[in-house]
Amino acid sequence: MPQFVKPAMSKRFVPGRTMIYMFLPESEPYCNSRCTGCYVLASESFKRRVKRSEQDVIDDLRNLVESGYSVLYSTTEVLMNRRYIEMLKTSKSDYILTNGKKILEKPEVLDELKDIGVTQIFMTANFDNSGLVLPDRKAFSEAIGKVLDANMELVVRITLTRNNVESMPGMIDACRGLGIRAIQFLRFMPLEKGPETLDGMSTKRAFELLETERLRNPDIFLSAGGALGSQFRKRRFCCPAGKEQFVIGLDNRIYPCIYLTQNENALGVYENGEVKIERTADIPGNELDCPAYRYYKLRSKSGEEN
What we know:
This protein has a 6-stranded mixed sheet with strand order 2-1-8-9-10-11, with helices on one face. A 5-stranded parallel sheet has the order 3-4-5-6-7. It has one domain: Aldolase class I (TIM Barrel), CATH 3.20.20.70. It has helices at residues 54-66, 84-90, 101-105, 109-115, 137-149, 168-177, 200-216, 291-305, and strands at 18-22, 70-74, 95-97, 120-124, 153-160, 182-187, 221-224, 245-248, 253-255, 268-271, 274-277. It starts with 17 loop residues before the first strand and ends with a helix. By secondary structure, the chain is α/β, with parallel strands linked by helices.
């Protein structure tokens, strides 16, 4: 059986100043889906959002790139924006995150994306035992067929909760049956009500299963997203959130992470095109675990004590 070729997504996050820029389509509905725990619509910065036109978004993205930042965009469904081509070109994005619905409505969008250098399509898979409300499974299956037919690199993201972690082998088999050869596992973050997130024990179990599945599936790229931390990885690291990597929230305030857009986590402000960072993030706990997980764990304990 042939070995997998590492997808380009495995090389994207390199040391350096990174800015994640959050924005929304100009008008409602802000998304064509509503997933549990959406880190954009469930963000606390959404409550304080500053309205931005599509031109404002493009100008901000250009300014950040020209200021020397590696820019990653963060929105609901980027293809819902009329000027998504300009947004992707300006931020120098070689990828998009999509739920697939727009690809089904307008398959020629894939050719448009290829023409501007987009090579990777990230899509979230919906497995019923996660306890999450995620994009429609049928639409997902049909859309990935079009992506693969277009010879674009497809990376499927699967969100892990305590409900579905033991189902990892079956989920990988289901993806294989659809022709998927790159899977990234994520940890559910409780921005709003939903299933239980992975605790330390279940996170360790996820990595044990991942190692077993890598041996069983040598032709599939299996990745663990940064939110799963690194204490159970062979290669350990500390998350750069709030130190080298920052987020401009929907309210133009600066935060350490897309999951940490609460008032108390604000680190500065993006004002008149200038990034003003006043402090770095300092969240207690094991630095090998995800800062967002540590934050929600502490907040949960505080709530129990109160």
